[in-house]
Design brief:
Elements lengths: L6 E4 L2 E5 L2 E3 L6 E4 L3 E5 L2 E3 L6 E6 L2 E5 L2 E4 L5 E5 L4 E5 L2 E4 L6 E2 L4 E3 L2 E2 H4 L25 H5 L1 E2 L21 E2 L7
Parallel strand pairs: 1-4, 2-5, 3-6, 4-7, 5-8, 6-9, 7-10, 8-11, 9-12, 10-13, 11-14, 12-15
Antiparallel strand pairs: 16-17
Amino acid sequence: AGAFPGITANAASLYLDRTRVVGNAGGGIVLAAGADGHLRNCFVGGDVNDVAALEATGASVDILFSTLGGGFGTAAALRCNAGATVHVRNSLLLARTGDPELDCTTDSLENSLTEAELDDMNINWFVPGGYAAGNFLLSGMAPAAILTAAQWQLGDPPTDIEGDLRPTDNGTPDVAGADVP
């Protein structure tokens, strides 16, 4: 029996808003063969080893206000190949592995944070038992940098994954990732 990702899109369009694709043994999302993905306010991945939370192969993906997390081994928050077009804004990319959480040359990575910028990830940054279960709600122990790394822009979502309000003034600092604690 093989391990399958939560969602696989081949030559298709995928739109996810305020969605959790977590805890799948084969990873979170795989976009391939010209697929076009759009994630907004999503939790993707989980404490799963040796897979990517999101993998783009010959596909395009726009990631906005999302939290992508991976486990140990060869896990990554985001993995892509040279044929992928990847834009990430206002997001949080983490993995528990010693390997890079970002195994991808993105076309843009704006107002987002990676584990490399935050030092080693600590599961205590998330609510108790959260990270292990793919629940990326932030705790009071999350680094302060996460709380102001993003920048809200006109057209961005007015709420987070749980419906908590985000600032709605253009250019206002905001929380990176899908959760406003």
